[in-house]
Design goal:
Length: about 375
C-alpha cells in the first residue's frame, strides 16, 4: 500500500504542475486543427491476477501495481480522421509493473504501441477503447530448479497485449483527467513452454496534458465513410515460430508454423463486417512432436471459422471463433479463438498480427500478409 500511496502522490504533484501551466488561447484553435497535438500522459495502476489455470492458482493472490507513461498524438486533422473515420489517438507507452511477488514473479518493464478510437470526443466527458501491442522484459521467469512455480513466463522477453476502456474528463483546453479499466496479457505466444501467460486486469488513474488545444473539431464537416455493399473476399499467408521443449530429455528445438487462410464476408454497417472462412496449417510443432514421440500421425490442420471485423478506416480489429475439421495430432481443444489487428496499406494489400488461443491459454502469435478484393 505504501507503493500505491507514493504513486498517487506523484500523480497529485503532476496534476498541480500541469494545471499551473498557461492554457492556449481560444483563437489558436483554428491553427491547431491543421496539426495533430502532441499529448503526454501519466497513469498509476492497481489490479489483480486472474487464476485461469490450476498451475498458477496459488500465485493468483498477488496484486500487480505500476506506472505508465504515454506519448501520443491526438489525431484531429481531416487526413488523420480519414484513416479510421473516427476521432482517435495513437501513441507509445512505457510501463513498469511490480507483480507483488518479488521472489517468483518479479516485475516487468514494457513498451507498446497503441491505437485508441474516441467516443463522443467533443463533450466534456468522453470515452475511448484502446488496443495495444508490444514487448515486456520480465525479471523472473520459469526455471526447472530455481523457479519452478512460475508457470506464467518462460522467456525474459515476451509479448504484451492490452485492451482498455477509458473515461476522460476535460478539465480545460489542455488537460484531461482519466480513469481506465485495463485488461493486460503477457505471454511468449507459444515460443517456449511453460506458457500459461498472465492475465491481470487493473484500474488506472491519470492525467494527460498538451501544450496545444485538445478541443476536437466538428467531424460533421468531414465526409462520412462509404458503406461497401459488395462481398469482402480475403486471402492470407501467415507464419510463426514455436519452441518444442518436450520431452525434457531432448534439447529445445525451433519449429515453423505456417499456412493459408481464405474468408468471405459482408459489411453490415459503417464500421462492422461479418465473415466466414477456412484455414490450412502446416503445424511444424506437431511435426516435431510426432518425430520425438515416434507417433504415426499427420501434422496438418484444417479449420473453419466465423468472425467479426471492426472497420476503422485503414485499421481492422478482428475476432474469430474456429473449429478444427482435421487435426489428427490432438494437442489442443477442438475450438479456438483468434484476435487480430490489421492495417490496409492500399486498396488490396493487408498486413496483420494475430494471437490464437485455446480457452485461456495463448497458443501462437503470428504475422500475416493478405489480399482483399
Amino acid at each position: 500500500m505504501k507503493a500505491i500511496c507514493n504513486l498517487s502522490i506523484s500523480l497529485f504533484i503532476l496534476f498541480f504542475l500541469v494545471c499551473s501551466l498557461p492554457s492556449v488561447a481560444q483563437d489558436s484553435l483554428k491553427k491547431n486543427i491543421e496539426k495533430n497535438p502532441l499529448v503526454l500522459g501519466l497513469r498509476s495502476h492497481y489490479g489483480f491476477i486472474l487464476p485461469h489455470s490450476k498451475a498458477i492458482a496459488s500465485l493468483a493472490n498477488s496484486n500487480p501495481y505500476g506506472l505508465e507513461l504515454n506519448i501520443e498524438k491526438l489525431l484531429i486533422k481531416e487526413s488523420s480522421w480519414r484513416k479510421c473515420y473516427c476521432e482517435s489517438k495513437a501513441g507509445l507507452l512505457v510501463s513498469y509493473f511490480n507483480f507483488d511477488n518479488p521472489t517468483i514473479l518479479g516485475s516487468g518493464v514494457s513498451t507498446a504501441i497503441y491505437f485508441e478510437p474516441l467516443i463522443a470526443a467533443r463533450k466534456r466527458l468522453f470515452y475511448s477503447v484502446r488496443g495495444s501491442l508490444g514487448l515486456s522484459y520480465l525479471t523472473r521467469v520459469f526455471d526447472a530448479t530455481q523457479n519452478p512455480d512460475n508457470q506464467f513466463f518462460s522467456m525474459p522477453i515476451s509479448f504484451l497485449l492490452g485492451v482498455n476502456f477509458n473515461a476522460y474528463y476535460r478539465l480545460n483546453q489542455n488537460t484531461l483527467l482519466n480513469v481506465a479499466a485495463h485488461y493486460n496479457h503477457i505471454s511468449n505466444g507459444g515460443f517456449k513452454m511453460p506458457n500459461k501467460g498472465m492475465n491481470f486486469p487493473t484500474i488506472g488513474v491519470g492525467v494527460f496534458y498538451s501544450w496545444q488545444s485538445l478541443v476536437i473539431p466538428d467531424r460533421r464537416l468531414f465526409t462520412k465513410p462509404p458503406i461497401n455493399k459488395k462481398w469482402r473476399r480475403q486471402v492470407w499467408a501467415f507464419g510463426s515460430l514455436k519452441t518444442v521443449s518436450e520431452p525434457d530429455s531432448l534439447p529445445n528445438e525451433h519449429a515453423t508454423v505456417y499456412g493459408l487462410a481464405a474468408n468471405i464476408g459482408k459489411q453490415i454497417g459503417r464500421y462492422h463486417a461479418l465473415h466466414a472462412g477456412l484455414e490450412f496449417t502446416v503445424d511444424g510443432f506437431a511435426k516435431t512432436m510426432v518425430a520425438r514421440t515416434r507417433q504415426n500421425k499427420d501434422y496438418h490442420q484444417l479449420t473453419t471459422f466465423i468472425g467479426h471485423e471492426l472497420l476503422l478506416g485503414k485499421f481492422i480489429f478482428s475476432q474469430q471463433i474456429g473449429l478444427y475439421l482435421y487435426n489428427p495430432f490432438h494437442r489442443t481443444d477442438a475450438i479456438y479463438q483468434r484476435y487480430g489487428l490489421g492495417y490496409q496499406f492500399s486498396k488490396h494489400l493487408l498486413v496483420a498480427a494475430s494471437l490464437k488461443a485455446h480457452r485461456q491459454v495463448a497458443d501462437i502469435f503470428d504475422l500475416r500478409v493478405g489480399w482483399i478484393w
